[in-house]
Amino acid sequence: PRHTNRLINEKSPYLLQHAHNPVDWYPWGQEAFDKAKKENKLIFLSVGYSTCHWCHVMEEESFKNKEIGEIMNKNFVCIKVDREERPDVDKVYMTFVQATSGGGGWPMSVWLTPDLKPFAGGTYFPPEDGVHRVGFRTVLLRIAEQWKENKDALLQNSQKILEALLHVTEIRVQGQESPPPPKEVMATCLQQLSNSYDEDYGGFSKSPKFPTPVNLNFLFTYWALHRTTPEGARALQMALHTLKMMAHGGIHDHIGQGFHRYSTDQHWHVPHFEKMLYDQGQLAATYSRAYQISGDEFFANVVQDILLYVSRDLSDQVGGFYSAEDADSYPTTTSREKREGAFCVWTAEEIQALLPDPVEGATEGTTLGDVFMHHYGVKETGNVSPMQDPHQELKGKNVLTVRYSPELTAAQFGLETGWLGDLLREGQQRLAAARAQRPRPHLDTKMLAAWNGLMISGFAQAGMVLAEQEYVSRATQAAAFLQRHLFDPASGRLLRSCYRGKENTVEQSAVPIYGFLEDYVFVIQALFDLYEASLEQGWLEWALQLQHMQDKLFWDPKGFAYFSSEAGDSSLLLRLKNDQDGAEPAANSAAVTNLLRAACYSGHMEWVEKAGQILAAFSERLQKIPIALPEMARATAVFYHTIKQVVICGDPQGEDTKEMLRCVHSVFSPNKVLMLADGDNTGFLYRQLPFLVSLERKEGKATAYLCSNFACSLPVTSSQELRGMLCP
């Protein structure tokens, strides 16, 4: 390479992608800040992530351009940030970009004063001026000129902007506010989701369409609390229909398993092809719930599909989970240029050549290729509309999407439905083998605590609902990985990230990044899920320790709720509280349920009080636009319905105990926590919850109690009776 900059010393795959740009990039840190102050230069901050399509485009067009690099180096101190490593930095400046330009996204481009205050920003800029857009080169030169000519005005302006941002982003409890009324919050959220629901294809927007598990989990909880009402039925129907349509669509990888990030169209057909760990983790949990509620094997198959993909393609040998796979790849081993979706799409010709076999018992002359292409909507000219393909990267190509029910496809060719499944599986296997010969997309091997937490929950919940011990073992292996590589036992704090090194080692960056609120919240949630799946009390003990640490580092005692980042980092202009459940739940939303579960396992009732204080801080938003916070709206209902402690007294190895546990795992109940009282009074749970000592096995059999606020029902010893209590 002709150029090498400081990013060569970083561990983040995204930063390493820019290590050979002619731009003198710095990572976010003191060295860059000092240089800006010393030389009195503006900072250009570029934020992205390694699987971001437009980040690649801007790098190719601008950051690899020598002349543009010279303008950047001469006039600015240039800083590159991986938003997945530093969500705190990303959020501060994204808040600014959204407030000033009305839109946001990545790559994010922001200009800062030497004391890090933003004054201009945007997202992707083309390199040169066009009819509708000013080019990056022009913007750089104009901003450099302004700094020379109007420095004082610019500095004053940046101060005003910061004050305005502080004002608009503040989320705090107003006076003596209490949590909002749950009935109204739930009803409004259902109404808002229902109004934006797509009756034909499912989902809650026309296009683009994101999976947003937070919406589906809200609907499941709504149904569970209103099972016999028309609204409850509507909630369940919207959730299950959406999950079915997603699984049939091209957003679901029918050959390589797992889900792509989002669909560019209304039909879930043509996706942006990157695959993110946080989607796989949440969708595995959501499809598990769909199976638990409906008993439909279709959903169980999707869970197995997701977990197969993650186990095979996103798993580190040491036990952690990688962050993502890119959308862009080389179409062939000799290609010079990457194309979006190249790894995943097919021409009709390729499929016919791979599946030429005549099909026995079908109408005369039918090949396996004919059946496969019909079922998955493959066309000779390609099945991607030009509207979905602005760069013509998918011309003549097909994104597989299930067009017909097995019955219809079978009828079309005069086949038996049962036989069709075997034919389609054979087709999938051959296409998978052919695809394995193609160059793979880039793999982001960074391992993040928060996303590993979401994935552990996915494996643990699937293990419980599908009664698959190997899923619980995989979750356990990943939790042990977190404890070993993403936790600092000396300080009791989580670390944000670690990286795959050479020969299966795990590396840490020179200056480790400590965990953010979301890392604590999703790891604690994962440990509670893992305890319920494995009944190993060590995970519970660690979860409660982390909850205490989270309170210490992030709680806002004045305005209530948790800040996203710790105090004391002078380079962060704002300590924010995220107020949107998006691709992932906002950390405060998930924290409410964590606190309620923590109180049940520990008897610390101040955690229940904290949960109520979070809801109070977000009360106005929950009452006006709960659709922005469906996970917190869901938690509002759980808060008021008081969590049920399901205590099973029995020998963990006993068949009768296992039957009781299977019964608990088979019922969807949004406000239950499970605990096993094994009779060992010296164990962690008995020390935390003295009332367990008074619960005993009836006639020596495994016995279940349903407790609320530590007062318990009469004991039951049959799983039928227990089911009756769990589904009143």
Helix content: 40-55%
Strands ordered across the widest β-sheet: 1-3-2-4-5
The Rg value, from CA coordinates, equals 27 Å
Please mark out the parts with pLDDT under 50 across 5 or more consecutive residues, or reply none: none
What's the total count of β strands?
Answer: 21
SS strand fraction: 5-15%
Largest beta-sheet characterization: 5 strands, mixed
Structural class, please? alpha+beta
Overall spatial form:
globular
Q: What is the average per-residue confidence, as pLDDT, rounded to a whole number?
A: 96
Distance between the termini: 68 Å
Pfam families: Thioredox_DsbH
Protein name: SPT20 protein
InterPro entries: 6-hairpin_glycosidase_sf, 6hp_glycosidase-like_sf, Ssp411, Ssp411-like_TRX, Thioredoxin-like_sf
Organism: Jacana jacana
What does it look like?
- 48% of the residues lie in helices and 10% in strands.
- β18 (644-649), α25 (655-666) and β19 (672-677) form a beta-alpha-beta unit.
- By secondary structure, the protein is of the alpha+beta class.
- The N and C termini lie far apart (68 Å).
- It has a five-stranded mixed sheet with strand order 1-3-2-4-5, sandwiched between helices.
- Among the domains are: 7-169, Glutaredoxin; 210-324 and 338-442, no CATH class; 642-727, Glutaredoxin (3-Layer(aba) Sandwich).
- It has 27 helices and 21 strands.
- The model has no long low-confidence stretch (mean pLDDT 96).
- α19 (517-534) packs across α21 (587-602) and α20 packs across α21.
